[in-house]
Every structure is written in C-alpha cells, then in structure tokens.
C-alpha cells in the first residue's frame, strides 16, 4: 500500500501540469540499464541481437521478416524517445509507455499502429503482495514493439524460446500472430496469480468457518484489496479485446481474429472467476459476522445461567445470615441441612430450566 | 471444493504458457477408454455402430443421412486429435473440447461449424455436491459431433432411444434438429438439479424460521455456493442461445429456429428461478440474523430480570446481616417476618413491572 | 409453498426428457370438464354457443365476424390438440398452453398468429396466499382464441357482458381490439392484488414502527415472497407489451396500437409500484432491526443501573457484616443509621448520574 | 399515507374492469367548481377571459394568436369531456387527465397533439407531508391546453403575470414556447420542495451525529419515504424530456428545442441531487446504527467495571462474615483495617486496569 | 455543508420562477472586480492585455491569431452580458456561466460554439473541505472564452506561462488545442485533490484497523461526503469528453481528437480510482463495525468471567455466614482453612475452564 501511494505522488509531482506531450518517466526508480533486443524471423530463419547504442544505430525493420523489438525497461526517457522518433510513434503513445501508472488501454494511431497497455501481475511470496508490471505492445505493419517496466521476471522469455525452437504456429505467423502470442502470455499469467489468491482465500474460509478470530477480519480485508487490484488490471482488458475482436484494421488478418476471440474468452472467464471470489468474500464476511453474534449469544447465555442460578442461592444464604433475634428456623437443629437441600434443589431446577431453554 | 481447485491447478500446470493451439487434456484422470459411436439415420433408416480403431478407420459422413458422431470421453488427446484432423475442426475448437474447465461458449468456425460448449449438471447424493460434466457439440453440414467428458451417466441415451423408436420429430429432422434435441436435453437436466436444490433450501428455510441453529449459517453458505455453481453453468447459455436464435447461418434451417427460441426461453426461465432462489437465500440469511438478535434480546431480558429482582433483596438481607450493636429492628420480635414480607412484596412489584415492560 | 413445488416436481416427472413437441399437461389435477365457448360478433350482431363435441364439430371462423373461441380448462390434452390441429396452431404453442408452469411470454408464429401467455393473479383470503392462473391468448386474422387454466373465477366474464350489452368500443373493434381488451382485463386485475398486498404491508408497517414483535420478521418475509411472486408474473409483461407496441404485424391495426401502448403504460406503472413496495419492505426491515438494537440498549441500561446501584450498597452491608472483633463503627450507637444514610446518599448519587447519562 | 391508499382504492373501485375509454374521475373529492380560462395573445395583444358555460360556448382558437386554455379542476367529467370533444382530443388522453393517479408520461396523438402528464409537488408545512398535484399539458398547432387537479395553489399564476406584463420571451414565443414555459415552471417548483427536504435532512443529520435518539430512525424512515415520493414524480420526466429533446414533431420549432434541452438538464440535475440525498440517508442510517453499537459498548463497559470491581470486594467481605469458630484474622486487632486497606488497593488496581483497557 | 446549502437557497430565491433566459448571478458574493484578459497568439507572436472598460471597448478577435478571452469572475452580470452580446453567445449559455450551481455539462450552440461547464476542485487545508470553482469554456472558430468563478487561485496561470515561454505544442496549436489544454489542466487538478483525499483515507484506515474509536465513524462519513462531492464534479465529464471524442464539429480538428481522447482516458481513470476508494470506504466501515462487535464480545467475556468466578465463591461465603445454631462445619477448627482452600480450587477450575473456552 505505501508503495502504491508513493508512486501516485510521484506522478502528481512530475506529470500533472506539465504541457501535454512532454515525456517524463513515472514510476519506481530502477538501477538497471534498459536492454533492447531485436528479433527478426520468418518461417525459415530466426535472428536475435541486442541493440546497444540506440542513438546511433536504429534497427530498420526487415520487410520480409516479422520484426520484434523488445524493450526491457521504460525508465530511460531518451531511449524511449529515440525509438519513438525512429518509428514515428505518436507522442501520446510514448507518454503512456513511460507512465507506469497508466491503466490498461487500447489506442489506434491511424492505420499505422495498434497500441495496447496491459498489466503483468505477479505474486510476491516474500512480502505477501501482488506486484504489477507495466507492459506496452505496439503492433505495426510487420513489426511488434514490446515495452516492459523492468525485466525482473523475464516476461516474454517463453516466446523467445518458442520462436527459437520453432514450436507451434508462432514462427509461421506474422506480426499480428506474435502480437496475439504476447497478449496471450500476459493473460495466462493471471491464472497463476488468481490460483495463489484462491489458495489463500480457501485457507481463510476454512479457518473462519471452523474457528473465527478477530484478526481474520483484517486478513479478509487484505484479500479483498488484492482481488480489487487484480480486477483493476483485468477489467479494462474485456473492452480492449472485445474491440480487437471486432477490429477491422489491416494490421490484423482475419485468421488471427479467431485467436484474439480466444483471448477475449479467457479474459471473460477470468473476470467471472474474480466476480465469484468477490461474492465468496462477501459471504465469508457474513459468516464471520454471524459467528460473532453466535459467540456473543453463547457468552451471554453462560453469564445468564451463572447469574440466575447463584443469585437466588446467595439471596437465601443472605436471609439466614440476618441477625434478627427471633428467626425460628435458625434454632431448628436440621434447619441448616434443610436450607442446603433446598439450595441444591433450586440450583438443579434452574439448571434443568436453562437446559430446556437451550442456554447450556 | 478441494476437487475444484485441484483441477484449476492442473490447468495452470499443464496449459498456461504452452504455445496456443497445442492440444492437452485438462481435467480429472479417467481410467475408462474413450468410446466413439457413429449413428446414421434418415426418415427411413437408422444405423448405429461403434468406431473402434480411430486412427485407421475414419467414418465418412453419408451425404443423404444425418450423421451423429458421439464421443464418450475427451481424455485421450490422440483420438480427439484424429477426429479433428479428419473433419477439419479448428485447433481452438479441439482445445476447448479437451479443456474440461472451459466455461460454456458458442463459437463459429466460418460457415463450416457451429460449436457449443455446455455443462451437464448432476446432483451427487452421496457427497452432497453438484457435479459438472463437460459437453461439446459441433454442428456441421449434415452431421453433429458430440463430445462428453465421461460416460458415467449416459447423457444422450434418451436421444438414441428416441431415434431408434422413431418417436417424435427427431428422426424426420436434419442435423440442426438433432443439434437442438441434444441442447434441449442438457437444459432439461437443469430442472432436475434445481429441483433437488430447492428441496434442500426449503427444508433449511423451515428449520431456520422455526428454530435456527448456529450451524445453519454454514449450511446456507453451502447452498449459496451450489447455487453460484449452477448459475455459472447456465448464465452463459443465455447469450449463447440468444445468439443462436438470431443466427443467420446456413447450418440452421428457419423451421428449427422456433425450437431454438424455445430452448432460449427455458434458459431464461431457469435463470429467473435461480435469481429468485438467490433472493430467497438472502432473505433467509436476514431472518437468521434477526432471530439471533431476538434471541440475544430474550437472553438479556432473562438476565436483567434475575439481577433486578434479586439484587435489591440480597441487599436488604445484607443490611440486616450487619453487626452494628444498635439496630432496633433486629430486636423487634416480628422484624424477621416483616422483612421477609417486604422482600416478597418487592419481588412481586419488580416482577409485575417487568411483566408490564414485556421482559418476561 | 408446498403446492408450488409439488407442481414443479410434476413438471419434471412428466415433461423433461420427453421428445420436444410431445404434448402433455403440466399442472394441478382438475376434476371439471373443459368448456369451449364460441362467440361471433360484429357491430350488428352477437352470437354465443357452447362447443360440446370437439372431435366432431369444429367451429369454422366466420370471415365477416370477429370470432372468439374461449377455452376454459387446459387439462384435457385431446381437446387442446384437436383445436390446435384445426386452426393450424404450432405444436410449441400448444405445449406452452398446456404447461401451466410456463412463464409469461410473447411468441410470433409467422404472419398467422401472435401468442401471449400471461398469469392471472388472485388473492385467496382463506389461505392468505396469492393464486396464479395460466392464461394464453392467440390472435389470428379475424379471431382470438383464449385459453384459461380453470374457470374457477370467470376471468373473462366482464368482456362477455360488455360484448352482449354492446357497451364501449369493444364490439365495434376487430379481433385485435378484442385481444387488447382481454389483455387489459388481466392487467387491471393486478391492481386489485397489489391493493390487497399494500393493505397488509401497511398494517405490518404501523405495527413494526409502534411495537415490533419477533414474529413480524416472518410476516415481513412472507410479504416479500408474495411481492416476488407478483413481480414474477408482471415483469415479463414489460417486454411483451413493449414489443407489441412496436409491432409491425398485419394482425394489429395502427389504431389499436395506442391502446396497447396504454396497457404497456399500466404495466410500467404497476412495476414501479412493486419496486417501491420492495424498497419499503427493505426499509421496514431496517426499522425492525434498529428497533431490536434500541431495545437491547434499553435492556442493557436497566441491567447496568440495577447492578451499579446495588452492588456498592451490598458491598457496604457486607463490610459491616464482617465478624472482626475490633470494628469501632459497630459500637457507635448511631453507626447503623449513619450507614443507612450513606447508602441512601450513594444510591441517589448513582441514580442522578445515570439519569444524567440518559440510562434511565 | 392513508390518503394515498384511499385514492388507490377509489381507482380500483371505479376504474378497473370498466371498458377502456370510459371516462371517470379518479381522485379526491373536490367541492370547488372547475374554472376554465382562455388566454389569447401575440406580440401585440393579450386577452384573458373566463369560460363559464362550457356546454354552450366553446371557445375557438384564434389562428393568428397563441391560445391557452387553462382548466383548473379535473373532477367534473362532463366539462373535460366537452373540451375533449370540441378539440378532438383522444379518449385515452382524457382518461389520463381525469386519473389523478396517473404517473407522469408523454404521449403523441398523431401529428395533432403532444400530451404530457406531470406532478406538481408542494410541501405542506402543517401536516409535514409532500402533496402532489396532477398537471396535464396538451400542445396543439397554435394552442396549449393545461389541466390542473385543483387550483388550491395558483400554479400557473406566474406565467399569467409574465404574459400580461410582456416580460421576457414568453409573449413573443409561439405555443411551443408557452408549453416549455409551463413545463419549466413545474420543474422549478421541485427545487423548492427539495430544498425543504434538504433542510429537514440536515437537521436530522446533525442531531443523529451528535446525539441519536430511538425516534430518529422513524424520522429518517419518513424522510426516505418523502424522497421516494419526490423521485417517483421526477424520474419519468427524464425520459419524457429526453424524448421531447429529440422530438421531430412539427409542433415544436427547432429554436424551442434548446430550451427543452435546458429543462431536460434541470431534470437530470434534480435527479442527481435526489440520488445524492438517497446515499446520504443511507449513510446517516449507518451512522445511527454504529452509534447504537458504540453506546451499547459503552453501557456494557460501565456494567463490567462495576461488576468487576465490587464482586471481589463483596466476596472478601463475605469471607470475613463467615461464622467459623477458628478464624485467626478476626481476632487480630488491626485485621479490620488491614482488610479495608486491601479492599481499597484491590479496587484501585482494577480501576487502573480498566482505565488502561479504555473501559472507563 | 452550511455554505453549500446557503448557495442553493440563493438559487431558489433568485432564479426559480423568473422568466427563463433572464440573466442573474447565482453564487457567493465576491468583493473583487471582474478581470478580463485578452491573449492573442500564433506561432510567431504572443500578446496579452487587460480589457478594462468592457462596455466601451469590445475586443475583436484577430482572424490570423488564436484569441483567448479569460474572464476572472462571473458575478458582474453586466460584464458577462456585454461579452455575450458582442460575441453572439446564446442567452442559455450566459445563464449557465452565471449560475455557479450549474453542474458540468456540454452544450452545442449550432456550428458556432461548443460550450463546456466544469468544476475546478481545490482542497482547503484550513477548513478541511473541498472547494469547488465554477469554470466555463466557450470554443469558437478562432477563439476560446474562459469564465472562472473567482480568481482566488490563478487557475489558468500555467497556460499563460506556457504560451509566453512557447513551451510545448500549445502555441503552435489552434483554438481547439488551447481549449483542450484548458480542459486538461482542470482534470490534472483532480489528481491533486484525490491524492489529498487518499492520504486522509489511509491514515484513517490504519487507525481504524489498529484501534477504532467512536469518532472514526463520523470521520469516515465526512470522507465519504467529500468523495461524493468529487465524484459529482467528475462523473458528468465522462459523458462530456466521451461526446467530444466522437465530435464531428468543424471547430475541432481531427489531430486534436486524439488529445481529447487522452483527456477522456484520464477522466475514466479518475472515476475508477474514485470507485475503488468508495469500495474501500465501505470495507473500512465493515471493519469498523466488526471490530465493535469484537470489542463487545471481549467486554462481555470479561464480565462473564468475573461474574462466573466470584458468584459461586460469594455464595459459599454466604452459606458459612448463615446463623444456624447447628452448623457442624463451623466448629471444625480447620473448617475455615478447608473452605478457603476449596474457594481457591473452585476459582482456579473456573479460570482454567474459561481459559480453555478462550474467554480470557
């Protein structure tokens, strides 16, 4: 939480009130250099190189190949800016790439580019928090440019492997198929995060049903917050992939369309799962509150039983503890035992009465 | 519950991050072999055979007949794959057939196939749980291919019987009418499951209204979960059959349209019933909570009555138990009886007062 | 309630899994015979006869008249079937007529028939329950066929009277105007039921605001259920009459359209009233719960006041009841009276304190 | 409340089940005669007369003037009927004019008339209730007919004044501008009612936040009911003026359109205000409930502190009040004072402990 | 709050019931004079002057420049009126400019003007309240007219600076780009206000989770009110900028469209943030209530433990304080010590029992 808000503050300080279109990085400080990889491939060949001096050597995209420029790290404004200039990317696109606070969105820049912002989610076991990574994908005529916030987790590693090994349809496909593969990968990741979430929720569910504890309320609250965070990352994707599915752009071939529909389908499925967890959290919350009421009832019954049994007995003891000179019972040699006897009987009667009223 | 999540885990482990289009079975392990039946019929004839060696003998669909390929079991990837190859089914279709976690959906594959995924629900009395079975239906030009998760329950048995016996319109109909009949059967099943559900809910309702118990909250929670599970299976069918009703495909004849509208109607009706049960559960929950409050009130009143009656009496007894040398009342020969009398009167006065305040 | 569910069971047993299009009655057993009336009228004449032997004598509709076939009772499948055959009604239409569980719906069967299912509601004072009656209306070129579940209440009696007496526009109108009149009648009935409901709700409202009782929760719950039942019957009519209003069918003349819009308007108004009662019930529920809390608070305050006043006094009495040999106060001749005096003062001080804290 | 329901009953008794189109007044009995005023004006002249004998002298609308027929009182069916006949108003329009229970609506009767029903709201300080007045406006080619339930409040007085004094655009405008002016007036009135409402709500809000009282719940409930009543009158106007804004009728000039849009805007603003008050009431309700819980907590703490301090002390006193022959402490000459001292110490220790636990 | 309602009252008093189109200022009294600045600029030049005597010297807009008339203060009706006359602004536009209660809206006045009303929000640290400022923007062919409520905060100062210094695209842009820049500035401001809000909310969140206090409920309520106020200012902007994005007006160039889409995007993002804070407040509210219940439970347990341990002990002491002549235990020389011992044992047993039941 504190981290999240530190970032927002930065955003406000750096970005608001500057002239729109002015490029500025918004996000956490990163000590690592940006790494830019260029991958060229078609059905026959596959070639990968690291682009070192961005300002001097701009890779030109080979017309006959599918080109993939993978940018690891968006914190070096000058690199992003030079890539932007070279490939004629719109300033607002670059602004969104640099703003790691930007929510997922789809933008069309004329017929040249389709631009998608997504959030890569990862569950950090150490600090028990979901971490979000900013990912931007630009689809052009025969190229894809992918921007990633930091390369802590090698997000697109699997695709590199698949391309190299020529597994599946990936290498036969054009830029739009690559674009789809990258989207698919990000969304597959959500399953993993949601699974982690569901494990924690079910643990808590069993605990609360069996033996609720005051702290559980806070744990439930934290899970609800995590779920809200996940949902925030995924919800906009419904509209984004819904729109891509109905897309009429020349950048996306009809044959790729059915794959995008599949991604859309996965997004819907994920959202439904999230909704059902939301409802589940609400229900667990209800169970928790009801069990509190039940406990209170049980505590109150204990109190009432003790009070109702011992109060009359203490009263009787008090009566025979009075110091009146003339109290005939006191002189009765068996008075004490009769009194003890009545006390036992009264106690038993009340006990049975409360037993019958389900108080004990 | 645990079962459900074990499956999701499998999905994540097996499926996420593999190249899209790679076929893999996602679901429970099944020790039984897949059985493939081929039924050919038209108004005059009916013929049924079991297709044993899929890899060698591919059944070709007879142009003049309606063909129905019924696949019992989707866990043998090679069989599904070979069926897919032979009938030119799209890889994504096969992927959905193999993924028993796939939620219900409708997919068009060009003009060749309409593909529907549904969930068959069954109430398992033994473990008191609703079991879900994965069903996939492919409608082609003159054929229907049906995939079922396992053939534990002979889901489509009734249709076989009806075709053999030439009862009803089923045999006169073409592939689209057969397709409709299969859908109709699955949806008829929901009535049975919902009826089971409603029986349990009404039992609990009566119990909670008459005599709520702390455990009832958990029972109610479990029913709510079951209802959510049923709803999850049926909700997507609204869109699916809504779309099929407005379908303009050549695969569905106008005369079949009115039948699909009828199925759509049943789905809507079922969803409405589910909604009303949802609301009912919420209301029962409210009754439960209110009755807890009412009980608490009643316990508190008992406590208050006991305390308020015996506290003053004990106090009086305490006063006359003091050991002051000069306490004139103590020497009064009737003091003891006067005191006892006042105690009785005070007790009665408080009792009447609390009676009047509706405490007892 | 039990009745409702008995019916669903019947439905499941009889209907589910039979071949679609197979006709079967779904509903309560009825010992009375079906009565079929044929009314022919135009501006000049009015003629009414009872059609006895359906299988032999099929009434043909007179081209120059408006014909109205009124079928009282839908439990005799053979009669419904023979009517269906004679007038070329679609099998699914007949299926819906026979299924008294069918929710309200509008169906077009080509250009020949507009078919509407509605629910007639009636408040049964004896068993304090709302009873629902199944009504089906078929509009054809110059005829209307009306099906009613049983003729316990002579639902359409008013229309017969009006036609005979030639009151209002009814007799001048064509089949579509008759169709409208019948719909209007059913909807007018809802006002009566809702009025009954509102009377009961207001009684309960006043009772709960003035003096809530544990049972009121159950009464409120039953009213909520009744309201849900009414809403279920009326909600689909919004879409049905909305669609009829925009209808472009040759069966409905433009001049009748404005009347259907009026019916639509009444449906909307009724639904709004229902919504406001729903909200009212929720608010009464809140009042009820809050008044429980208020009562609890008041009980607790009583308890606290008694405890807090008498505990210290009893303690003081206890102190002077101790048997130490050297307790100087005990020998003071006025000690007893001083002590009693202090007790009175302490009691008054606490009383004033709690008065000031609004505990008493 | 009772008034409201008396009216509904009348409606049911008089109106339901009569032939549609039969005219009948539905509403409160009014002892005053209907007054019909005819105003003719254009930019140059202004003329106003009272039309006394409706049946004999029908005013004809002057083609060159804008004509306004203002009908105060809709309870005399014959007058409404004769107006209707003379100006060819549709029977359903007259039915709606006579039915003071009719909710707001917009109706087009061909190209001849646009008909709007609205509710004039007024806050009656005496009985602390919002009163609703039925207003119907008919826009024709060069005339407006306005119907008002009773002329208790001279609803349209301001417009008469404005026309006479030739203030603003009103007199230059045609019938459609007059029509707009009347609508605008009714909606301006809502601001006044809502302001009254907001005053009462804020009073209650401050009271509940500072010092909640059991009765406040009922007051809040009544405010909620008032708000629902206001909302019910205004909500349909959103659709009505939304439709009028998009209106393509020849009766409304394009230049008037922008004014209707302004009215539409006011309606939206009013509805938003109502929504925010709704949310505010809900929040106040929450505060109220929470403060009940807080009070309960505080009462319980007081009880616990008293019990926990005096119970052990009374116990100690009880111990030394026992009559054993051999109790060495009793013979100690300072035993009494030691005991008193320990009691004070124990009392202080508990007090400090509960102070530390924030119980006191 | 009081301020807000004082304003509404003024509105009602001044504005309602006057002829529509009559100009009147609605808002707080302002002692400062209105300041009107005229800025003319194009890519080469920038010129700024203060327009002093509005009635005599009307600035004409230079055709070759982009002209910006900035009006600080809308309380002097005559100035607004004269500007309106000179630039042919519609009377309804001026009415909206003068009404500081007017909610945000977008209005088209033919092809000549696009008019937007927005609310500038500012957090006033002194009175801990969000202040709202009325801003109106008129876009014409080559000019923008901006109206601001008061110039307490120099709202558009940053734009002046940017234009002077020729930073960014602002000066190259035409009137539509300036219009966009002003909108963007207002919306950037919301980030600042929301950040302030979020800081306060998180403080309260931590406080409530760790140690809830009765007052926190009121603080939470105030935050909820602030959030509602912010939401009220921003929600209409969604529709406004959504519409501007789809705008087909000649006043907005296609190249500016993408910038407006960016603003639209920011509005959506802000609304989402607001929604998530809303949900967060609700959850905190739940935590608060649950912690109240938990506390109550803990208080009740303390009470029960004290009562249940000391009641039996006091009873035993009472028994041996009875004055029967024949009580054999009393004469036992060790009776006292045996009794004390049993008391200790009973106390320990109960203590352990409650420890086991998690009461202490």
From TrEMBL, chains A, B, C, D, E:
Keywords annotated in UniProt: Cell membrane, Ion transport, Magnesium, Membrane, Transmembrane, Transmembrane helix, Transport
Alphabetical list of InterPro entries matching this protein: CorA_cytoplasmic_dom, CorA_TM1_TM2, Mg/Co-transport_prot_CorA, MgTranspt_CorA/ZnTranspt_ZntB
Pfam families for the chain: CorA (PF01544)
Transmembrane segments: 303-323, 335-354
Cell compartment(s), UniProt: Cell membrane; Membrane
Principal location: membrane
Annotated membrane topology: Multi-pass membrane protein
Domain of life: Bacteria
Entry similarity comment: Belongs to the CorA metal ion transporter (MIT) (TC 1.A.35) family.
NCBIfam families: corA (TIGR00383)
Stated role: Mediates influx of magnesium ions.
Full protein name: Magnesium transport protein CorA
Classification lineage: Bacteria, Pseudomonadati, Bacteroidota, Cytophagia, Cytophagales
Gene: corA
């Amino acid at each position: 939480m504190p981290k999240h808000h530190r970032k927002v503050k930065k955003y406000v300080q750096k970005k608001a009130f500057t002239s729109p279109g002015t490029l500025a990085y918004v996000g956490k400080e990163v000590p690592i250099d940006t790494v830019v990889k260029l991958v060229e491939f078609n059905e026959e060949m596959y070639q990968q190189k690291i682009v070192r001096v961005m300002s001097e050597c701009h890779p030109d995209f080979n017309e006959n190949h599918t080109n993939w420029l993978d940018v690891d790290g968006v914190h070096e404004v000058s690199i992003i800016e030079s890539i932007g200039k070279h490939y004629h990317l719109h300033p607002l696109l670059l602004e969104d790439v640099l703003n790691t606070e930007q929510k997922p969105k789809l933008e069309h820049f004329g017929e040249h580019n389709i631009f998608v912002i997504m959030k890569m989610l990862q569950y950090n076991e150490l600090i028990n928090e979901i971490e979000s990574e900013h990912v931007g994908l630009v689809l052009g005529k025969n190229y894809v440019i992918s921007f990633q916030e930091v390369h802590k987790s090698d997000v697109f590693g699997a695709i590199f492997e698949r391309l190299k090994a020529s597994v599946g349809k990936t290498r036969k496909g054009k830029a739009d198929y690559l674009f789809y593969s990258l989207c698919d990968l990000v969304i597959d990741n959500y399953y993993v995060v949601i699974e982690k979430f569901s494990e924690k929720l079910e643990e808590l569910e069993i605990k609360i049903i069996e033996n609720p504890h005051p702290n559980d309320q806070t744990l439930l609250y934290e899970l609800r917050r995590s779920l809200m965070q996940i949902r925030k990352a995924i919800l906009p994707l419904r509209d984004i992939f819904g729109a891509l599915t109905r897309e009429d752009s020349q950048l996306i071939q009809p044959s790729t369309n059915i794959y995008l529909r599949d991604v859309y389908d996965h997004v819907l499925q994920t959202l439904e799962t999230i909704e059902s967890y939301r409802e589940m959290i609400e229900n667990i919350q209800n169970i928790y509150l009801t069990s509190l009421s039940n406990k209170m009832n049980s505590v109150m019954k204990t109190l009432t039983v003790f009070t109702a049994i011992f109060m009359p007995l203490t009263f009787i003891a008090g009566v025979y503890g009075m110091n009146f000179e003339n109290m005939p019972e006191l002189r009765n040699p068996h008075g004490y035992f009769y009194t003890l006897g009545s006390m036992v009987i009264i106690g038993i009667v009340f006990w049975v009465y409360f037993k019958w009223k389900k108080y004990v």
